[in-house]
Amino acid sequence: MRSEWAEKDYYADLGVSSSASAEEIKRAYRTLARANHPDKNPGDKRAEERFKKAAEAYDVLGDESKRAEYDEFKRTLATGGFGGLGGYGAGFRGQDFSDIFGGGGYSQEGGLGDIFSGLFNRGGATRNTARATRGADVETEITLDFREAAKGTVIPIQLTGQAPCSACHGSGSRTGSTTTCTTCHGSGYRSESRGAFGLSAPCEDCDGTGQRVTDPCHECSGLGTVHRTRSITVRIPAGVIDGQKVRLAGKGEAGPKGKPAGDLFVTVRVRPDAVFTRTGDDLEVTVPVSFAELALGDTVSVPTLDAPVRVKIPAGTPNGRTLRVRGRGVPKRDGKAGDLLVTVNVTVPKNLDAVSATALRTYAEAEKASGFDPRSGWAGTK
Question: Could you state one GO biological process linked to this protein (predicted)?
């Protein structure tokens, strides 16, 4: 659990109830992200703030384990703050509160972890670690051809949002000079008394970094980031399916003052193909053949994602049978590939010349003479 959650209401930030399902939470986040995305609201600080709050809320509520921790933390606060200090021996005997509140011993800034560490003599080291902030996550969509998605590709895309300032290289300072924040004394947190003990929250004067810029960059006003359009190259792995999300760590919006960037989530849309379909890692294709090729057997050329292959049709193959060619399907992550499933489909000629018609009649008469009846045993003849 994290002490900064005490002042957050992530359900309200997403506009859902605390009993909302995972799907409802995801839907609410996507709606807010689309409506307030910086690309749609250039220069709108309010929309940008709503976008970041929604992303932060979804980062917690969209993760099952984090949501459970957050809910338990809120429930405990609502019932009086972790059982109160009176009678703590029964409620917290032998429990390591450095695990619950993110670790940390006592410091002059205080906080839940500090108080409980002092009470139970657990984790007595002093810590002045600043809050680890990061840039916002970004979502976008791309559309690929069927074969690009199956084989994998590299595609350039453009994103508009917070990017590192080129003038100060993301530091927020013209010379890289900083000083310890006088509000939080370099801890990155400010303390607040709540009844019998205190809570900590990120320091607003230094954005939780513990440091303040003494000579702000003129280009970014000390933020370390600017709103601009940038181009990045996205590598799409082989075998992605329609609707799949690809995560690119650190390719989202830049973090403030040199902090880590958020992640980029790319939703892949796949166009249908005129020749192929797929089931899992198997590639499917229907090949037109003649009656003679099925009856007598033959070898036909069949397309693949790469060069065509020759597929042998055994004599007497019935129409609609599927032949399997191993290893010529969609590539897998382990370097192997699925199979190519070839379905043969008889194509009947619409117009026969005189020679072909005569030959076919001769065959039909011979077929009857041999006693062959294509409807023998058919249920419709009973």
Answer: DNA replication
